[in-house]
Amino acid sequence: MQLNETTAVLESPRDAANEAAPAKPLAWFDGRLVATDSPQAPLTTHAMHYGTGVFEGIKSYATPDGGAAVFRLPEHMERMRKGAQLLGIDFDPARASDAILRTLRANGHRDAYIRPLAWLGSGTIGLDVAPLTQHYMVVTQAAAVHLAGNAARLGVSGWRRNPATSLPPLKLCGGYINSVLAKREAKQRGFDEALFVDGDGFVVECTGANVFMVKNGSITAARHPDALDGITRATLVELTGAHSRPVSLDELKEADEVFVCGTAAEVAPIAALEDVEFGDNPTTREFQALYARVVRGAVPQYERWLTAV
User: Model confidence over 170-199: pLDDT tens digits?
Assistant: First the structure.
């Protein structure tokens, strides 16, 4: 089934973003809303064997008017389109966005994590993707994912980030094995999160978040060609006036504050980097509060980033 199909089992979209949730959560699956435990994928599904899919992590937030809004939905859909194009997956951002909004309404979710996924299905077990079926799904969860703004202890990973010359820094499913390995290693060492550093000692990113530092009142966003071009990172650069440049691990350890950001992580202060302890992180807390106001529509000049549910 191609990704531009939008047939829905609902006769019309639900009006209220905060409508009572159904008995079972619903998911969008190839053009219709179904119970999340009902779809089945064949054991020969290509994405299950080779990671041939592309996803996004997106969030919606309750707004002061009693509704909800998705934060920077067009930007997420455009990045997803780029990943889909690389895999030969047909992807219509407008129709994919509509499916996200329908799923949120159907589940009655306001504060929610949203996971759209486009993937290649059955047709061959080989590496030629042209004969494969194409699929699209959306699930929404009213639950915290990843760091969710909580202070974290950061360990330097023994793994290197996938180089952009080998795997483009997009949200391609197979590429996140790299993050899984680093996260698992960090947890085994007693840390909450892992930091990727390149062979020259420069900071890349965390497993699912970009890195910032504060030093003498100056805000710096670590820039690296192998890091995901984070949408939340771009948001924080605009909100804080941060400078974007390469940052070494030694420089990061000497910072007054370190924080990471991402859709799921939001703005998360770093309590420690290896054996270096950071304090109360007052500047980071200030940015956390500002970001929380922006995503909930409490700062009028940034309402352009919100898509009403």
Answer: 999 999 999 999 999 999 999 999 999 999
**Nearest one of 216, 232, 233 to 224, comparing CA atoms:** 233
Inter-CA distances, 67 with 138, 154, 168, 309, Å: 20, 36, 36, 7
Of all residues in the chain, the percent with pLDDT exceeding 90 is 87
- Tens of pLDDT, residue by residue over 44-81, are 999 999 999 999 999 999 999 999 999 999 999 999 99
Sequence-distant (≥ 6) Cβ neighbours of residue 209 within 8 angstroms: 146, 147, 193, 230, 232, 260, 261, 262, 264, 265, 268
pLDDT of residue 7: 32
Q: 148-159 burial, b for 16+ CB within 10 Å, e for fewer?
A: ebebbbbbbbeb
Count of beta carbons in the 10 Å neighbourhood of residue 280:
11
Question: pTM, whole model, 2 decimals?
Answer: 0.91
The C-alpha atoms of residue 294 and residue 72 are separated, in whole angstroms, by 11
What is the reported pLDDT for 144?
Answer: 62
Q: Which two tokens stand for residue 55?
A: 């996803």
Give the whole-angstrom CA distance, residue 18 versus residue 62. 9
Tokens of 254: 């000497």
Tell me the pLDDT tens digit for each residue of 131-169. Answer: 999 999 999 999 765 556 688 999 999 999 999 999 999
State the Cα angle at 172 between 167 and 306, rounded to 5°. 125
